[in-house]
């Protein structure tokens, strides 16, 4: 509709119903406005007004009305607009307006559901009257184009709305086939082909009258008319020798479009296996025009096929010559498809012809030959397979890729001929050929094929890294899933390859080569995790082996976890980082050995390793609530026995000290116990121990305890000191009035006892690092505590209290922040520890200048207190009791 209305002028603003009596410009603008308004549901009034404007005395107004009605008639259900168009056309005297009306009717009636309705009958009558009206077109007459356009519009409308075999209409259209205008003759021939039967059509196009007057026939002077006439001959059918003769004559036309139309017409006119027709089509297959050759090939398949299935040699030869001489890819494909249809698949002559193209110097022809092989032969033909495999060694990469693609399409999986040919080229000097052969074996050979597997195993030692990586990927698809030790060993040991791509391919391939939990794989991976290859590849190999182990081993595999933990070596930071990441993939949350290894990595020198260890601990720690006492009672027996620092029986610890101290203990987890120690001054200190994965009882202070088989025979055991630090190290020597309340007394003063929230074992593993002499390690351990413990975890709070008076300001600052993150609101023990830190005025120092930076410890403690106190009054009370005598370092 937009196209039909675009030539109409835009209506002026403020136009109204009275503007229709004005100038032609205003009336035309009114037509456009009405067309736009008539798109609304209430359009009847607008169509009536347009019908009235269609009889205006001004031709420009009538033309505008016709265009507006045409735009409305093209809309579904606008029957009134189409009727109005017919009425305008019936009364119109202007050729230009009538042409516009007929074209609008053709568009409006296109696809109508009732071709025999009133609109169609009246439109056909109008168009037929125009066609029958005698007109002359003189080349010197300026009105010649208008008359030709009118006739073309009428003929196209008749082709669409007139009834088939209507004698009057067919007679009028046939007469127009002799019109002097080539355009009119072309449209008339097309309309005649749609409206008349074969007899009338043949008489006009190729009959005796055509011989006397060539206009409108297959011998018309204009090539477009000849093309339309030849295409119309196809409607006559194969029973007319006269039509075949005319089409055969047109096959020698000077214009390529006419020859192409003749080739298409012969497909419908000639009987099957007609010798003359096949000869003509063979000649057309060698035509200079690709359109003609394509049309001839389409017709050749039907015309040259024989009922007895014999081979039409001439037709096949013509198709193969067309394939060799054509440059168009689709035409070449059509030529081979036609040859294969006529001669049958795997025809030796056809296959050899295509194979000759594989040896051409022209890359395009080699590509065409490779693409044609699947069209003319099957994968069971050894010649086809051999030729495609031979092209894998082509010097041009596109040809190799095309050959490999064709080989995989043609050859069925498991074809031994193809496998043997590929194996023979696996040792080619060309890297690209070796890669192509491996890719071919991966797609052609069956899984478990011994010949292919052996050839690929040899490529694991190839000098080119890309070939080695491809060999590993190929073995993952080829090797039988029978846990073959030979294949597993050779592939796994490729983890020691110097190329990272090869090592990565091994990690991906191992799960496909062996079943989960295969001990041979674990043995090889363990060897690679301990690799002692010369630097700089040692760390990379260990890292790759850890990742391979993480992808292969089952979740929670103890042997795999032990190997990975062993690889977390401080001397190899890159490998340690990779092992820590792999540890998360293998270990289950709460795995003791994994937690020990990750906690030990917090003491490494590299900051990156410590950061990764923090993340790993956070993922491994079981931050759920503590288990109920009934379930923990079963674990108490693991602590019983004689140790280097004392004996444990039942729920009591008998210390090896002078006063023969005996203290009860409580279980905090599967491997954690907590108790209390009393120093020489009678002060009580909470302490706890963790039984690690190696059987050591690791205390939060002092030395670790080891199991003793003969404790009574050793005097050293009798003199072993308490595991806890001495009282002077924990609380400074002060007068009794200045001493802080005992920690056990503070704990007893809390109104509500809270459960441990977090992994007590992980907390204990981290707290063991608080004994380190390196301040950086202690700081890292303090930062790790909130990662493994939830808010309210008593074990975490107790271990943080030990470092609140650490000699390093960085450790104390970290302890204040961690305590604020772990303690619950109202925790008396944490509030008291932070209150003591309020007098600590020391600040962190910038390295290497030594300049103090950041807030002091006391300021951080004050901010932490705001988060833990329950009320503002409590905060005011703490501040009022503070005896601040001036800045002092560490508040001691």
UniProtKB/TrEMBL annotation:
HEAT repeats: 796-834
Pfam families with a match to the protein in the record: HEAT_2
Transmembrane segment boundaries: none
InterPro entries: ARM-like (IPR011989), ARM-type_fold (IPR016024), HEAT_type_2 (IPR021133), PBS_lyase_HEAT (IPR004155)
Entry's Gene Ontology molecular function annotations: oxidoreductase activity
UniProt superkingdom: Eukaryota
Role according to the record: Catalyzes the hydroxylation of the N(6)-(4-aminobutyl)-L-lysine intermediate produced by deoxyhypusine synthase/DHPS on a critical lysine of the eukaryotic translation initiation factor 5A/eIF-5A. This is the second step of the post-translational modification of that lysine into an unusual amino acid residue named hypusine. Hypusination is unique to mature eIF-5A factor and is essential for its function.
Name of the protein described by the UniProt record: Uncharacterized protein
């Amino acid at each position: 509709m937009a196209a039909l209305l675009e030539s109409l002028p835009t209506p002026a603003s403020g136009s109204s119903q009275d503007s229709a009596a004005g100038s032609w410009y205003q009336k035309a603008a009114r037509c456009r406005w009405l067309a736009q308004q008539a798109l609304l549901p209430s359009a009847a009034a607008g169509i009536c007004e347009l019908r009235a404007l269609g009889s205006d005395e001004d031709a420009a107004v009538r033309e505008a009305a016709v265009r507006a009605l045409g735009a409305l008639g093209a809309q579904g259900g606008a029957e009134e607009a189409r009727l109005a168009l017919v009425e305008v056309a019936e009364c119109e005297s202007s050729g230009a307006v009538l042409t516009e009306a007929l074209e609008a009717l053709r568009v409006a009636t296109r696809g109508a559901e009732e071709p025999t309705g009133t609109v169609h009958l009246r439109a056909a009558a109008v168009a037929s009257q125009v066609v029958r009206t005698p007109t002359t077109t003189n080349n010197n007459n300026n009105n010649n184009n208008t008359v030709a356009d009118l006739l073309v519009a009428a003929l196209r409308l008749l082709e669409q709305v007139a009834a088939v075999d209507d004698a009057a209409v067919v007679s009028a259209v046939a007469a127009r086939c002799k019109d002097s205008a080539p355009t009119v003759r072309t449209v008339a021939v097309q309309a005649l082909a749609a409206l008349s039967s074969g007899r009338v059509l043949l008489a006009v196009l190729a009959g005796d009258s055509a011989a006397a007057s060539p206009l409108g026939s297959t011998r018309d002077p204009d090539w477009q008319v000849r093309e339309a006439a030849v295409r119309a001959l196809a409607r006559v059918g194969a029973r007319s020798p006269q039509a075949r003769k005319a089409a055969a004559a047109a096959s020698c036309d000077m214009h390529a479009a006419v020859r192409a139309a003749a080739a298409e017409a012969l497909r419908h006119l000639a009987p099957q296996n007609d010798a003359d027709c096949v000869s003509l089509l063979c000649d057309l297959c060698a035509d200079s025009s690709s359109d003609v050759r394509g049309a001839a090939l389409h017709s050749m398949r039907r015309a040259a096929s024989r009922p007895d299935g014999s081979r039409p040699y001439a037709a096949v030869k013509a198709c193969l010559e067309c394939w060799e001489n054509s440059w168009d890819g689709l035409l070449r494909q059509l030529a081979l498809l036609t040859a294969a249809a006529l001669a049958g698949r795997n025809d030796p002559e056809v296959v050899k012809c295509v194979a000759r193209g594989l040896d051409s110097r022209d890359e395009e022809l080699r590509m065409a030959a490779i693409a044609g092989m699947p069209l003319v032969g099957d994968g069971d033909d050894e010649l086809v397979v051999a030729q495609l495999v031979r092209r894998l060694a082509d010097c041009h990469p596109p040809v190799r890729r095309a050959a490999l693609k064709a080989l995989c399409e043609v050859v069925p999986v498991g074809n031994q001929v193809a496998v043997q040919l590929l194996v023979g080229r696996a040792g080619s000097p060309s890297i690209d050929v070796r890669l192509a052969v491996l890719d071919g074996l991966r797609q052609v050979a069956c899984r478990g094929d011994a010949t292919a597997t052996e050839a690929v195993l040899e490529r694991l030692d190839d000098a080119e890294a890309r070939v080695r990586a491809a060999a590993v990927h190929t073995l993952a698809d080829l090797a039988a899933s029978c846990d073959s030790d030979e294949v597993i060993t050779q592939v796994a040991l490729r983890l020691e390859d110097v190329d990272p791509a090869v090592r990565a391919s091994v990690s991906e391939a191992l799960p496909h080569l062996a079943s989960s939990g295969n001990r041979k794989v674990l043995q090889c991976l363990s060897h690679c995790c301990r690799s002692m290859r010369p630097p700089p590849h040692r760390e990379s190999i260990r890292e790759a082996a850890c990742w391979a182990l993480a992808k292969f081993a089952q979740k929670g595999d103890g042997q795999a976890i032990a190997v990975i933990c062993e690889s977390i070596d401080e001397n190899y930071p890159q490998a340690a980082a990779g092992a820590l990441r792999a540890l998360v993939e293998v270990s289950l949350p709460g795995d003791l050995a994994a937690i020990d290894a990750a906690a030990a990595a917090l003491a490494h020198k590299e900051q990156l390793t410590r950061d990764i260890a923090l993340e790993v601990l956070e993922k491994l720690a079981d931050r759920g609530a503590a288990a109920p006492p009934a379930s923990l009672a079963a674990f108490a027996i693991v602590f019983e026995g004689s140790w280097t620092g004392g004996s444990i029986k039942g729920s009591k610890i008998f210390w090896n000290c002078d006063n023969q101290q005996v203290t009860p203990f409580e279980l905090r987890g599967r491997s954690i116990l907590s108790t209390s120690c009393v120093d020489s001054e009678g002060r009580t200190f909470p302490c706890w121990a963790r039984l690690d994965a190696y059987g050591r009882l690791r205390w939060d202070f002092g030395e670790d305890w080891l199991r003793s088989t003969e404790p009574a025979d050793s005097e050293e055991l009798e003199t072993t000191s308490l595991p806890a630090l001495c009282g002077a190290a924990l609380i400074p020597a002060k007068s009794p009035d200045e001493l802080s309340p005992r920690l056990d007394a503070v704990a007893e003063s809390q109104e509500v006892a809270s459960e441990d929230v977090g992994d007590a074992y992980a907390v204990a593993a981290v707290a063991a690092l608080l004994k380190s002499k390196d301040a950086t390690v202690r700081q890292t351990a303090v930062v790790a505590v909130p990662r493994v413990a939830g808010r309210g975890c008593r074990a975490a709070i107790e271990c943080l209290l030990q470092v609140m008076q650490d000699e390093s300001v960085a450790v104390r600052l970290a302890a204040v922040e961690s305590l604020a993150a772990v303690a619950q609101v109202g925790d008396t023990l944490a509030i008291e520890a932070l209150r003591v830190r309020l007098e600590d005025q020391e600040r962190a120092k910038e390295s290497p200048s030594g300049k103090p930076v950041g807030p002091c410890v006391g300021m951080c403690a004050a901010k932490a207190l705001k988060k833990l106190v329950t009320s503002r009054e409590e905060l005011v009370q703490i501040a009022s009791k503070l005896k601040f005598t001036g800045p002092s370092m560490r508040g001691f």
